[in-house]
Amino acid sequence: MTDWPGLEEFLRTDPRDVGCDQALRILHVYVDLILSEGAGPTARRYPGVAAHLLACGPCSDDYDGLLAAAGQPAGDERA
Amino acid sequence: MSGERGLDADSAQWLRALQASAPDRDLALARLHALLLRVARSELRRREGRHPITGPDLDDLAHQAADDALVAVTAKLGQFRGESRFTTWAYKFAVLEVSAKLGRHFWQRPAASLETDQWERLPDRLSMRPDQLAEQADLLAALRQAVEEQLTDRQRRVFTAIVVNGIPLDALVVQLGSSRNVIYKTMFDARRKLRAALVANGYLAVPAGGPAGLDSVRRSS
Which residue of A has its CA nearest to B205? Predict the structure, then answer.
């Protein structure tokens, strides 16, 4: 058996993974829930999105960016 | 539009202003554009080091992303259901525009190509320690063989581009004229096939289940 955790993790797939389209469709809802209720309850409510964000680099990146943007006061329009 | 019932006060105010007549609507559009531009700039800065864009080009890309996001928001205003704050919904368009524009920009780099395979870099991409290279040579060969023998032509092309050659997934989407969802699903199926092949040949243990992880390559995808 191998001792290459990076490969094992990379090849592991989660059947709950909803894919990019579904995850991005509700990403704004997911992010606001994260900000209001925390990561645990949100991941339990949307396990397929949570699984996808763990596995998909681009969607995870978009999630990180949206979380950072939504966490800032909307009234601050400075760049 | 499902109406403003259930909306938070700020979201309701945004909707009223964006559906109003001039000059209130124009003022709201200008304010929203400023917010989207802030998000686009922040997003490009957050991704610094993963793209080569700097200076005026960076700000120009931020403006393009904000402009296109504003067009998308106004075109899809009727689809906002109040399931989140209006601003979070709107910001999503700016973030997605930044991703799409960076994907397109990737191919403007002189070195960008789908043609040069970089199998020697795979151990590093998948976080193999340098001292393991010799002992994992058989596994690496088995993986390469599985890629050649188990994957369809399209799966092999996508796997090689993203994992072997380090092409960002969004850039591959542009190159293949596809969508992120389709390319991701292609990779998902390829990963499952490769794992099954390596398990069948005794290189990997039978999976115990649990959430997937792509941590070691996700930041390069």
Answer: A1
Q: Tell me: pLDDT of B143 over 90.
A: yes
Nearest to A2 among B139, B210, B213 (CB): B139
CATH tag, B119-218: 1.10.10.10
Query: What is the ipTM score, two decimals?
Result: 0.91
Nearest CA-CA distance, residue B130 and chain A, Å = 11
Q: What does the buried/exposed string (b/e) look like for B2-31 if buried means 16 or more CB atoms within 10 Å of the residue's CB?
A: eeeeebeeebbebbebbeeeeeeeeebbeb
**pLDDT given at position B3:** 42
B87 touches chain A (CB under 8 A): yes
Where in chain B are all domains bearing CATH 1.10.10.10?
Answer: 119-218
Whether B195 contacts chain A with CB within 8 A: yes
CATH 1.10.1740 placement within chain B: 9-106
Instruction: Kindly determine whether residue A14 and residue B210, on different chains, have CB atoms separated by under 8 Å.
Output: yes
Tell me the CATH number for domain B9-106.
1.10.1740
Task: Tell me the three state secondary structure of residue B128.
Answer: coil
At B51, is the secondary structure helix, strand, or coil?
A: coil
Q: How far is Cα of residue B49 from the mean position of the Cα atoms in its chain? A: 16
Give the global pTM: 0.88
